Amino acid sequence: MRRYIFSLIFLLMSLAAQAREVYSLNDEWLFFFKNDASSDEARRVNLPHTWNLDALCDHGEYLKTIANYSRTMYIPQEWQGKRLFLKFYGVQSVADVFINGHHVGEHRGGWTAFTFEITERIRFGEDNKVVVVVNNSYQNDVLPTSSEINLYGGIYRDVELIVAEQTTISPLQYGCDGVLIKQNHITESTVDATASVFVTSWTDKLCDLYLEVKDPAGQVIFKRTVKEQILPNQSIDIPFRLYEAKLWSCEEPNLYTISVSIGRDHNDTVEVTTGFREITVEPATGLKINNKHHQIQGVTLYHDRAVIGSALQPRHYDEDMARVRDIGANAIRSATAPHAQHLYNTCNETGMLVWVDTPFTRAPYLSDFSFFATERFRENGIQQLREIIYQNYNHPSIVMWGIYSLVWMRGDNILDFVKELNHIAKTLDPSRPTVACSNQDGEINFVPDLIVWQQDLGLERGLINDLDMWKERLFSEWGHLRSAVAYGAPGSINLQTNSSLKPVDIGPRWQPERWQTDFHEGYARYLAQDNRFWGMWINNMYEFGSVRHAEGISRTGLVTFDRNDKKDAYYLYRALWNKKEPTLHISDKRRTVRQDSIQQIKFYSSVGSAPVLLINNDTVKVREYAPCQFKSDSVIMRGENKILVKAGELSDEQTITIGNALKHRP
User: Fold this and answer.
1) Which DSSP letter does residue 610 get?
2) Are 186 and 246 in contact (CB under 8 A)?
3) Out of 34, 199, 235, 343, which could bridge 66 as a Cys pair, Cβ 3.0 to 4.6 Å?
4) Domain that holds residue 521
C-alpha cells in the first residue's frame, strides 16, 4: 500500500506511521548548474525535470554538464528507530546523493531506479538537506557510450522517501520492490510459481512472511505463512500453486495481485501485480504465448518528445500508447533502455507485448566506440542489466530482454562480454528469451535466443527489391536462426519533393517525406506477409530528439516529434495492422503543388469494399498492387484538381495544383 504526500504539511500529519509509508519528494527542489556563480541563484523546480529543457536556461545549446538538485525534508522525532530509504526512479546519467553533507551513494546509469538507505545520516526532529549531483556527460564506463539519443540530464523521474520498520522487505535489491514472482511450470489449468522475497533486518535473524494471492476478480485464492532465516542478498522463496489459473495473454490480459507481509502484525507489506504465461519461439512456428501464435507487428519507442524531453508524465505515455494501439501494433520495443513503470503497467493491462533493451548499443557514427574492454565498463553493463531485469521482472507484458543493439564485432573480448550478458539474463530469468538487433555479420548473432536484422536496403545501399534476394539467402543459409526484421527511414513533413529518386550527391539534411513513404511501402510489399520472420519492427513510432541529427531531431518516426502530425507511413501500417477500424488515406497530400502534368494517385484502404477514385468528378481506374496499397492509372492534370476517394462510409480528399507556384528540390 502506498500513500503519497506532496507537501511538508502533509508530511507532518503522518507522524504516527506504524508500517511502511512512501512519500513523494517531487516538489520544492532547488536547481543550479555546478558552474553557476552562486547557488543563491538556484531555481525552484518540481520533478520530473531535465535541464536541457529548462525555460530559465539561457545557454542556448544542448548541455552535457553537471548540476545540483537540493531540497530539505523534515523528519519527525517519532520516526527514530525506523529505517529510511531514498528511491530514485531515473536520473540521467550519473547521480551522487548526499544527506546533510554525507555521501550516501553513487549510481551510474540513467535509465533504471536505485535506492539508498539514509537512516544513519538523518537528524530526527529536524530539517535534513538532500543534495543530488547529476552528470549527463558521456563516460567511457557508463552505458551507453555510443548513442543517437539525447541524454537530457536531470532527475527526470519520480523520487520517493520510504519509511519502514527495522525488519523490512528490502528496497535495496537492484532497485526493485523486493518481491519477484517466478513462474516455474504452466499448464492449461495450473501454475506453479515462487515468490522470491528479499528481506533486510538490523535486528532479526528470522522473520515471518505472509503470502496472499488474489485472482483477476479480486478474490483471495491462496494464503501461506512461512518462518525463514534472513540472509544478506538472498531471497526467501515461497512456492505456491494456482488451480484453474487464468493465464495472461494479449486477448485476455489476466492479472493477479500478490502481497507479501512481514511480521506477525503485518507491519510491512509489498503488493505486486503480475500475470502468468508461457513464451516459446521456434524458427518454423514463430513466437507463441500459451501455445498460440502471435505474428509480431511492433514499433520502436524512444524516450522523449518535444517540449517535454525525457521528463515524461503518465499522461504522455497514455497518449503515446493510444496511437500505438490505433495503428494496430501488438508490440513495442523500449529502445536503448527501459521506460517508466507506468508504461509497462499499461501494457500489462492492455495485452501489449514488450521488448526491453539493455543500453549496450551503437550509433551509426565511425567516430563512436560502443565497447570499451575495461573492467568498469563490464561491471556497469552487468549492473544495468541486472537492474533492468529485477525492476521489470513482474511485468507479464515484457516477453524478451534485449542484450545488445547494432554493436560491431570490434574490440577485445566483445564476444565474451555479449555471452556473459546473455548468460546472466538467462540465469536471472529463464522464462523469457533474449534478443538482439544486428546489422553485422559474425558469431555475435548466434548468442541470443532471437535475432532481429536491421535492414537499410534501398536507403543507404542497394534497392528495395534486393530484399527478395536477401531474405531467400538468409533462410537458405541461416534458417535455423529465429529471425525478425527491423527497418525505418527518415522523412520530414516539412520537406516535399517531386522526385521518387534520391540523387547521389544529396546532403543528409534533405529527407523528404515521400522517400520515407516509398521506403515503407516497398518493405511492406516484400516483408509484411512473410511469416518466416517471427516479427516486423518499425523504426520508429515517433521522431526523437538527437543533437547528432539535422535540426536536433531524428525524422525516422511515423509521427512527428511534437505528436501533432501523422505521416503517410503511419496510415500504411494502420491499414495493414488495425483490424478493428478501417483506414482510407490518400498519400502525398502535403505535396499540394506539383510540376508534372502527368500524375498518379496513391492511397491506402482496408475498408473491405472496392474504393472509388474521382478526379474532378471523373471516375479513374485504380488497382491494388500490394495489400492495402492502391494506385490509379496515370492522369493528365492542369491547374487546380479535386481528388476524392470513397470506400464504404469513409472518404478522403485533397487538392493538387499543377504549376510552378512552389519550388521543390529534385
Assistant:
1) P
2) no
3) 34
4) 294-581
